[in-house]
Specification:
The complex is a heterodimer of chains A (284) and B (290). Chain A is built from 11 helices and no strands. The longest helix of chain A is centred in the N-terminal third of the chain and has 45 residues. Chain B is an all-alpha fold and 290 residues long. Chain B has a two-stranded antiparallel sheet with strand order 1-2. In chain B, helix 9 runs antiparallel to helix 12. In chain B, 40% of the residues are buried. Classes of the chains: A mainly alpha (284), B mainly alpha (290). Chains A and B meet through helix 1, helix 3, helix 4, helix 5 and helix 6 of A and helix 1, helix 4, helix 5, helix 6 and helix 10 of B.
Chain lengths: 284, 290
């Protein structure tokens, strides 16, 4: 009797384990399909011939028309370069502002500075739309509309609060004792900052720069408002493939896929950096 | 220490001037503009006091746009968090190919919002969209998504969920890694089931991380503009407008800068309240960890 019920029990658990296994596989498959199906369709359409598919299945003809248009006729590279340059200059200016500021907020713990830091935190949560109209009018008066400079200025003030917050966090992980030791040895504050502290904060600075770069690359609202022809950025161009008259679906698909390439590099780089940062933190 | 303070003040000065002062000036300008009727197109520029505010608060479209962004944020963050937590737990368990799954889960983030918006517009397209293709193949009728007044709003919500849930996944996943394994082991020794382990051990330990992730995502989602503008431009018939898009339309389609400024000030007020809540919780959480 005992043997019989024990068999039934293990039989039940085996079936449950099997169902669990199958359930897991089903969930994973659904997750994969959910995450990737837009890419698959965009890929399909980017190689599609002039007749778009109106039902599930392969298109009637394949062609490289879309990529010809995106790469040669109205080269997407031009807009990519605009975006990249704007991102580069924004990173430079934000670094110049946020690294010293992050250091200050990290080392100075007075009431005033804490309050000041809170102000920057609040700025981080500003709805950007509140700045569009005044900035637009200002840029218009300064004749900076449709220039890269207008976006560099805009993105700087938008991203600096986050950059300062990140840099403060990174500087917090560097012990003050190092600086105090150098002070005792008679070094000036500035040389301490440059020779002692900053080299240790470089990996933090790189993470901050990558975030600022990412933001500048994907930003849409201000780029749409401020740029038109000369300084049009990549996101605005991609959105521009859609129009009330005729939407260039295939070109848009191709351009969207191309837009992923810089981000893939960025993510690989970022994850390696963050992983290194995490392990360093764990060792400490 | 005096010397330290002096030098930190100097170092923080560029930040104060370039960012704090300039932003304050711009916000002041926005407020000033909101008290005027300013439309260069028809050459109007006159002081009208708070009339802009009175008008927009009485405007049903504007009020609905506020309600909509609240609903939008609620659904995107709510469903996104549930999905992200599920995915984080799944991948955290660890199995063959978990790393590849992690990369797959993150991939929606690789499509920049502008590209994501246009690709999903394609997916939702009545004739050429994959979603209608599959529906037809399964035997259902084709539906219009982005041109339907009822469905367009929720269609965009789905796109946002698809695009940014991976970010919440990353935050939660990192959070799971930072949990002390002892508590979970103790629970296992005591014979807890998976669900009990999650509900009574994992989730409470994850609370600060979940809250911060949710708050950051909520603040960002509240500012949303890209997807809605690219996919529906606030339509059809103004049925998917949120604060961001309706303000943009006021400024750059109607050229009513005064009205747009007043809308953005209202948006600012709402955000200030949200950020106060966030700051309160952030300081509470970080203080507790010390």
């Amino acid at each position: 009797m005992v043997l019989y019920s024990r068999d039934a029990e293990t039989g039940m658990t085996t079936i449950l384990a099997l169902l669990r296994r199958i359930g897991l596989v089903v969930v994973i498959m659904m997750l994969i399909i959910w995450s990737l199906f837009p890419f698959a369709y965009a890929l399909l359409l980017s190689f599609c011939g002039s007749v778009l598919p109106t039902k599930l299945g392969l298109p009637a003809a394949f062609s490289l028309d879309a990529y010809k248009m995106v790469l040669f006729e109205d080269p997407i590279v031009r807009y990519l370069v605009n975006s990249a340059l704007i991102a580069l200059f924004t990173c430079i200016v934000v670094s110049l502002i946020s690294i010293p500021a992050g250091y200050s907020f990290s080392r100075n713990n007075s009431r005033g500075f804490s309050l000041l830091f809170c102000t920057f935190l609040v700025l981080r949560m500003l709805p950007w739309i509140a700045l569009v109209v005044p900035l637009f009018i200002l840029m218009g008066r300064a004749r900076l509309l449709d220039t890269k400079a207008s976006l560099v200025i805009t993105y700087t003030i938008m991203q600096a609060p986050l950059a300062i917050w990140l840099m403060k966090g990174f500087f917090d992980t560097i012990p003050v004792e190092l600086e105090e030791a150098a002070l005792v040895d008679g070094a000036s504050r500035l040389t301490i900052l440059i020779k002692v502290v900053f080299p240790l904060a470089i990996s933090g600075a790189i993470v901050m720069i990558l975030f600022v770069w990412l933001f500048s690359y994907i930003e849409f609202l201000f780029a749409l408002s401020f740029t038109r022809m000369k300084a049009m950025t990549f996101p605005v161009k991609i959105a521009g493939y859609q129009s009330k008259g005729k939407t260039l679906w295939r070109a848009m698909s191709g351009a969207s896929l191309i837009s992923m390439i810089p981000l893939i590099f960025l993510f690989v780089f970022l994850t390696k950096r963050i992983a290194r940062g995490l392990t360093l933190g764990a060792i400490k | 220490m005096r010397e330290l303070e002096k030098s930190t003040i100097i170092l923080v000065l560029p930040a104060i001037v370039a960012v704090l002062a300039f932003t304050s000036y711009l916000l002041g300008q926005a407020f000033y503009l909101s008290l005027r009727e300013y439309s260069p197109l028809v050459r109007i520029d006159e002081f009208i006091g708070f009339r802009n505010y009175v008008e927009i608060v009485g405007n049903e479209e504007f009020l609905r746009s506020i309600l909509r962004i609240v609903i939008y944020t609620g659904i995107v963050v709510g469903i996104g968090s549930l999905l992200a937590m599920g995915m984080a737990l799944l991948v955290f368990k660890g199995f063959r190919g978990a790393n590849i799954l992690k990369i797959v889960i993150i991939s929606p983030m690789l499509l920049i919002p502008a590209a994501g918006g246009t690709v999903w517009t394609l997916l939702y397209n009545y004739e050429f969209g994959l979603i209608n293709h599959v529906a037809k193949w399964l035997g259902f009728a084709r539906i219009s998504y982005l041109s339907s007044p009822e469905r367009a709003f929720y269609a965009v919500i789905l796109t946002d969920i698809w695009s940014w849930t991976p970010l919440l996944f990353l935050i939660f996943f990192a959070g799971l890694h930072s949990l002390p394994p002892d508590s979970l082991e103790a629970a296992e020794i005591d014979g807890a089931t998976s669900w009990q382990k999650f509900w009574y051990v994992t989730l409470p330990l994850m609370r600060p991380i979940v809250v911060i992730g949710v708050l950051i995502k909520s603040v960002d989602t509240f500012r949303t503009f890209d997807y809605i503008w690219i996919m529906t431009k606030g339509g059809p018939g103004g049925n998917s407008h949120v604060i961001g898009t309706i303000t943009y339309r006021s400024a750059f389609r109607f050229f009513r800068y005064g009205e747009a400024a007043s809308m953005s000030i209202v948006s600012l007020m709402i955000s200030l309240v949200m950020s106060m809540i966030f700051l309160w919780y952030y300081t509470r959480v970080t203080r507790r960890q010390v």
